[in-house]
Design goal:
Helices cover about 35% and strands about 10% of the residues. By secondary structure, it is an alpha+beta fold. The chain has one domain. The protein has a two-stranded parallel sheet. Strand 1, helix 2 and strand 2 form a beta-alpha-beta unit. The radius of gyration is 13 Å and the shape is globular.
């Protein structure tokens, strides 16, 4: 993942239940590397959701599946 991509991550103190929004132009291999790094570094393991692209584009069905409910 390039430094520009890392700078675009909105939250770096990761806690259980957080939502991490990555830029839309991140490559699939960089996403996989990011997820692997999250799994390796999180102590204790954290449950997070990683979204690539704008959060407002997430469908209502996806939000419901994640336990969110749009009002």
């Amino acid at each position: 993942m390039t430094e520009a991509h890392l700078d675009a991550i909105r939250k770096l103190k990761i806690e259980d239940g957080d939502i991490l929004v990555l830029p839309q132009d991140v490559s699939p291999s960089d996403i996989n590397q990011f997820m692997d790094t999250l799994r390796e570094l999180a102590t204790p393991p954290q449950r997070v959701m990683v979204i690539v692209g704008p959060l407002d584009k997430l469908s209502e069905a996806d939000m419901n599946a994640a336990g969110w409910y749009r009002k």
